[in-house]
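User: Run a structure prediction on this.
Assistant: Running it now.
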Amino acid sequence: MRGTLSWLTVLAAVALIGAPGGLSAQENPPDTVILKGSPLGGVKFSHATHQGLTECTACHHESRPAKPLSAPHQPCTACHTKAATAPMTTSIRDAYHDAAAKKGTCMDCHVAEAAAGKAVPVKCTECHKKSNT
């Protein structure tokens, strides 16, 4: 009986925590997220718009040994903070784009899309707005 109870406990834990579609997976992300912290204003990010254009892993990268993920699609700010604190080496701003806003997770894609002739924001104030607080 004791062995059966142990296996049931393990199976329940796997089903709730580690299985695809379990509690740890974020199947339905929030439609819109306001990314705050810039003196230029917050960025209104639409998951719905971006989901049809790229894979989730384009932004939500794989777990890293220095700071393992606690969920498959956790918010960037769970690891990346305003000032990078050990063991992290990338601040939240640098995770989105470098200091010159020329490359980074957001800008790499936006620059490529603009070069392909698509109308996407590439200037700071096209994303950063004081009204997004």
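The beta strands are 32-35, 42-46, 128-129.
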